[in-house]
Design brief:
Layout: E1 6-11, E2 20-25, E3 28-35, E4 38-43, E5 57-59, E6 62-64, E7 71-73, E8 89-90, E9 92-95, E10 98-102
Antiparallel strand pairs: 1-10, 2-3, 3-4, 4-8, 5-6, 6-7, 9-10
The structure holds FE2/S2 (inorganic) cluster.
FE2/S2 (inorganic) cluster binds at residues 46, 48-49, 51, 65, 67-70.
């Protein structure tokens, strides 16, 4: 881990534009999504029934869970049908060709 709390987890070229990818960073299941050249990280655990989002569909910034179709905005984790529900978000940055995710202690 760098001194700034960001952990390198994937080469940037391993995540294509408009795609998602499940990773584990420091034991946390995180889903990465790349939209408009920016990478977003959310917890890879659907609050509905606990499915992982790999295999889900990303349309713009909206991620649809593969299990029952709940939709979340990857920019803020917000569940589209209820403001009370949101995924945990992880800040991401691209450094030296690597995607780095911020893991707070
Ligand atoms: S587990 Fe994600 S929508 Fe049901």
């Amino acid at each position: 881990m760098g001194t700034d709390g960001f952990v390198s987890c994937l080469k940037e070229r391993e995540l294509e534009e408009g795609k998602i990818r499940a990773v584990r960073v420091k034991g946390k299941p995180i889903l990465l999504a790349k939209v408009a050249g920016e990478v977003f990280g959310v917890s890879n655990f659907c609050p509905h029934a606990g499915c992982g989002f790999q295999g889900g569909i990303l349309t713009g910034y909206i991620l649809m869970c593969p299990c029952h179709g709940w939709k979340f905005d990857v920019r803020n984790g917000q569940y589209q049908d209820s403001p009370q529900t949101a995924l945990t978000c992880y800040r991401c940055k691209i450094e030296n060709g690597k995607i780095c995710v911020e893991i707070k202690k």
